[in-house]
Amino acid sequence: MEKQMLRAVLKRLREKNLLLECNKEVDKEYEMGAVLKHFNNKRPILFNKIKNSQISSIGGLYGDREIIYNLLNINHENRIEKFMDAIVNPEPYKILNNGPIKENIIKRNIDLQKLLPINKFQEKDSSNFITAGVMVVKDPTTGKHFTSIRRLQVNGGNKLSALIASPKLTKDFLKLEKQGKPLEVAIVFGYDAEFLMASQISSATYGIDKYEIDSRLRGEPLELVKCETIDLLVPANAEIVLEGKIIPGKRETEGPFGELMGYYGHIAPHPIIEIDAVTHRNNPIYQTAFPCREEHVSNGLIREIELYYHLKNQLDIVDVYVTEGGGYRFNAIISIKKQKEGDAKTAILASLGLNKDLKQVVIVDEDVDIFDPQDIEWAITTRSQASLDYVIVQGALGSSLEPSHDLRGITDKVGIDATKPLNDEKEKFSRAIIPGYDKIDISKYFPNI
Ligand SMILES: Cc1cc2nc3c(=O)[nH]c(=O)nc-3n(C[C@H](O)[C@H](O)[C@H](O)COP(=O)(O)O)c2cc1C
């Protein structure tokens, strides 16, 4: 029985009745995306019949926090501890001689559009885009594996354009490009939650091998096989792998593309990947993700750990939520057990300084539910005064994925201290409580409800 990658995930989802299967024929252009968006990209959907394709496709697989917890056998309370454990205690992976991913090997006449049901999602998208492929590269100096999701524009035949918003990956590629050398890449489809979560950890911060983090997270070695045409390892039980190279000295225009915040990203020249081999299992399943905020929950989960540990050095921190509305990047809510009056301002400084994408942070007391927008609004409106509690930083670095940043090439940042004062002698900030409220059994009063 397979334990790793997509087939194991599908089995688990079916057992738990979490998988929707669509047997009606769908068009990979717009229609599949519309169906995924209908469920807010939080329902895993297996599309069994895609127009002009022999291959089925899974979407919406990792857009829901609870499904990710479930697949990883973790829960909300222990998530931070589990992910941090994987980062600091990497374990070896295992190299196998063969695996199902080698059941079919294609090295000639590669036409990606014909081979795979690659989606076109939104009206003004420049082409069809691969949106869920995990790109594998090796650090040219250390040889450590670096995995990440990068959207890829299909340019025709075996060519793709890559959007690489990663300083580390860009630096690695530019260094090789100066020497006239390509960067070898493999793009993996049909992975499990462990593989995804490891891919979202920032390599630049930890300088780690993501395959070793994956092995710790799954509690057994990640099983890998060698690629056919390049010196990289890929999961033995993945569904589809594209093997190729980022070519030095070549750029092609990429975009527009409907980005995660629902705006179109602009057109710009980006590096080209040429695919030299495609390997796939029998009856492979292509993996896709609607480009949207919900699909970035895995990224947000990792940012939550980074914030938690960064702040833990200085504060008694309770929990962190990098919010869905803010694309799991731009907005964080942090609850603390305040010990000193300066705690909240320190939390603001530390979090805004940690990650360039973070644009807004709200600090609340531990009695506020950071996953409840009403409770956060309540804390901001009743526990903060703008002139005293708002910290505004003008002109810092930001993410190009939100358009207000593009106006000036830089972004303003704001931190809101929505904590109550420590010295609340008159108990102005204590919540009114009904004694016995928690114990009320409403069915005793209204038996028919
Ligand atoms: C569904 C999904 C799509 C993503 N698409 C992109 C992308 O197109 N370009 C990009 O640079 N990062 C994208 N990311 C984020 C990176 O995969 C993530 O930041 C990376 O793994 C961490 O490495 P880094 O620190 O080098 O960014 C995506 C993440 C997810 C979950």
UniProtKB/TrEMBL annotation:
Chain ranges of the 3-octaprenyl-4-hydroxybenzoate carboxy-lyase-like N-terminal domain: 10-87
Any one GO MF annotation of this record: carboxy-lyase activity
Pfam families: UbiD (PF01977), UbiD_C (PF20696), UbiD_N (PF20695)
Superkingdom in the source lineage: Bacteria
Record-annotated 3-octaprenyl-4-hydroxybenzoate carboxy-lyase-like Rift-related domain positions: 97-293
Every 3-octaprenyl-4-hydroxybenzoate carboxy-lyase-like C-terminal domain range: 299-418
GO cellular component terms attached to this protein's record: cytoplasm
Family the UniProt entry places it in: Belongs to the UbiD family.
UniProt xrefs under PANTHER family: 3-OCTAPRENYL-4-HYDROXYBENZOATE CARBOXY-LYASE-RELATED, 4-HYDROXYBENZOATE DECARBOXYLASE
Name of the molecule in the record: 2,5-furandicarboxylate decarboxylase 1
Organism: Tissierella praeacuta DSM 18095
